[in-house]
């Protein structure tokens, strides 16, 4: 492996240096996508330093002038070098978004502990947290299913239960795959968590809030003030995750997005009484 210094300045065979010194001792920058001016090409070939560096190249580098190179006006550019020297626009945009996300989330984590600037409202935030937790929702849906005496009511409650379980599974899978750590300022004092809940992307509370809000609006809640209340509740659940320092903003934003689409999946998988009866029939 050539040293980093040698890699950045070498006039290796088949490649164009990022910068070279001109005759006046100043650096001249040239584009990788353009053919270098003849005086630079000539200097590449004759300069004893660059010749020495070319000679010390690794076999890999030398192979770079073969099939895995891109041609630029007769010059061969190793593709790996092009990628390093020209970081992609998407890469820069993502790193910038991530930096803004971390900065904003840290600033908004004003209830992360009791002595934070809004530490006094932490108990209220934790109450909102519990309202979006999986256990009260699963227990509530199971209780309503048990108490419901109409077929329509049982159908809705059974599908809500199925939606809640689906949400836990999907969020668990994404968390286990992405493995993004929770913000450093978070205190891990949440009640009843799975092992994947040490990861923060996406927010399980946000997915549940978005999915349940859509579910309630579609099947249960009818009066306009209650519909507004449901939407406010879902928004507060998401926002409280960042205020408590549990999540970064992007975890919650993606959680809302995922929960919204999860509801569409629930509609596709909707269990009708006829289907249930045939499933029960198959079991017997
Ligand atoms: C019946 C049964 C196994 C219930 C499990 C319910 C449970 C422990 C859900 C976890 C809910 C939770 C803490 C999610 C994490 O939410 P984030 O917003 O912090 O991702």
CATH-level-2 architecture of the largest domain: Up-down Bundle
Instruction: Calculate Rg over CA atoms.
Output: 29 Å
Structural class: mainly alpha
Determine the mean pLDDT: 78
Global outline? globular
Distance between the termini: 68 Å
Order of helices and strands: HEEHHHEEHHHHHHHHH
Number of continuous helical runs:
13
User: How much strand content do the residues show?
Assistant: under 5%
Summarize the structure.
The protein has helices spanning 4-9, 38-46, 48-55, 59-63, 79-85, 89-108, 122-131, 134-147, 151-178, 204-219, 224-243, 249-268, 273-283, and strands at 19-21, 27-29, 69-72, 75-78. With 284 residues, the protein is mainly alpha-helical.
Care to describe what's here?
The chain is mainly α. It has 2 domains: 4-63, no CATH class; 103-283, Vanadium-containing Chloroperoxidase, domain 1, CATH 1.20.144. It contains 13 helices and 4 strands. It has a two-stranded antiparallel ribbon with strand order 1-2. Helix 9 packs antiparallel against helix 10, helix 9 (151-178) crosses helix 12 and helix 10 runs antiparallel to helix 11 (224-243). Mean pLDDT is 78; it is low at 1-36 and 39-74. The site of the ligand CC(C)=CCC/C(C)=C/CC/C(C)=C/COP(=O)(O)O has 15 residues, from helix 8 and helix 10. Ligand LBIIBCTY is lined by residues 133-135, 138, 168, 190, 192-194, 197, 203-205, 241, 246. It comes from Anabarilius grahami. Keywords: Endoplasmic reticulum, Hydrolase, Lipid metabolism, Membrane, Nucleus, Transmembrane, Transmembrane helix. Its EC number is 3.6.1.68.
């Amino acid at each position: 492996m050539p040293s980093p210094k040698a890699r950045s300045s070498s006039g290796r065979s088949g490649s164009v240096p990022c910068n070279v010194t001109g005759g006046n001792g100043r650096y001249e920058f040239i584009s990788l996508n353009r053919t270098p001016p003849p005086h630079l090409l000539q200097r590449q070939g004759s300069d004893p330093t660059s010749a020495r560096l070319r000679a010390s190249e690794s076999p890999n580098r030398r192979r770079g002038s073969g099939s895995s190179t891109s041609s630029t006006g007769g010059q061969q550019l190793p593709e790996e070098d092009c990628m390093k020297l020209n970081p992609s626009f998407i890469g820069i945009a993502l790193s910038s978004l991530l930096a803004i996300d971390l900065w904003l989330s840290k600033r908004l984590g004003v209830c992360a502990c009791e002595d934070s600037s809004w530490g006094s409202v932490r108990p209220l935030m934790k109450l909102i947290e519990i309202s979006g937790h999986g256990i009260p929702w699963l227990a509530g849906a199971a209780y309503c299913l048990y108490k419901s005496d109409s077929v329509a009511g049982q159908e809705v409650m059974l599908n809500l239960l199925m939606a809640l379980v689906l949400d836990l599974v999907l969020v668990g899978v994404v968390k286990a795959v992405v493995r993004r750590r929770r913000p450093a300022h978070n205190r891990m004092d949440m009640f009843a968590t799975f092992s994947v809940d040490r990861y923060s992307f996406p927010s399980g509370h946000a997915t549940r809030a978005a999915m349940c809000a859509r579910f309630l609006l579609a099947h249960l809640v009818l009066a306009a003030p209650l519909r507004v209340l449901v939407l406010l509740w879902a928004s507060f659940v998401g926002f409280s995750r960042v205020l408590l320092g549990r999540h970064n903003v992007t975890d919650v934003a993606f959680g809302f997005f995922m929960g919204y689409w999860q509801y569409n999946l629930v509609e596709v998988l909707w269990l009708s009484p006829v289907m249930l009866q045939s499933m029960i029939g198959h079991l017997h």
